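Milestone 3.1: sequence recovery, worked example.
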């Protein structure tokens, strides 16, 4: 969790966009935060601080907004990067995992040789909502044989109880709503 001063600055740089991408959803737009070099750096520092004690060898990032934080985290932690991608994007042999969306279904894929039993993987995404996306990501990472050592999010919509879908490792979010 971010300290009080950072928490306030992060909140001020995340704007609510009602009814995007569809009616009833309040979209948390992190664009103003991404545009602020100092604040982006501090958010990455705080996420890296949460991950560092878990000694990750790799950061696994969920397409696409997880990618925005993955490079900075890998650089800070001297870790490798594993992209978890939408269907049909990865060129090599993959593992696939479907998950439920509010309406319908989506799928994530990982290269089958992206990690192995010697590896300690920390998962990153911008936002934890119902936890369906992150739970699919966890399943994929474990299928490579790697250990899932923790997960980090910039934002947690706590009222959706997404943490309930994530078991057996620490879950860190810098700011919480609800
Ligand atoms: P969930 O699987 O319900 O935890 O949804 C998490 C994924 O959906 C993340 O990759 C987020 O980027 C995206 N997401 C879900 N809800 C929102 C929201 N209110 N604002 C922005 N992104 C969201």
């Amino acid at each position: 969790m971010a300290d009080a001063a950072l928490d306030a600055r992060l909140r001020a740089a995340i704007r609510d966009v009602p009814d995007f991408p569809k009616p009833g959803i309040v979209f948390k737009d992190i664009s103003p935060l991404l545009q602020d070099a100092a604040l982006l750096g501090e958010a990455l520092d705080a996420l890296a601080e949460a991950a560092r004690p878990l000694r990750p060898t790799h950061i696994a990032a969920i397409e696409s907004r997880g990618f925005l934080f993955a490079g900075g985290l890998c650089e800070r932690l001297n870790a490798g990067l594993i992209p978890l991608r939408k269907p049909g994007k990865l060129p090599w042999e993959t593992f696939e995992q479907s998950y439920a969306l509010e309406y319908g279904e989506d799928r994530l894929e990982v290269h089958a040789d992206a990690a192995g039993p010697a590896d300690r993987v920390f998962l990153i995404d911008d936002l934890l909502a119902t936890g369906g996306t992150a739970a699919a990501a966890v399943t994929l990472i474990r299928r490579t044989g790697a250990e899932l050592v923790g997960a980090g999010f910039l934002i947690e919509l706590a009222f959706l109880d997404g943490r309930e879908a994530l078991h057996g490792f620490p879950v860190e979010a810098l700011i919480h709503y609800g």
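The longest strand covers residues 147-157. The first helix runs from residue 4 to 12.
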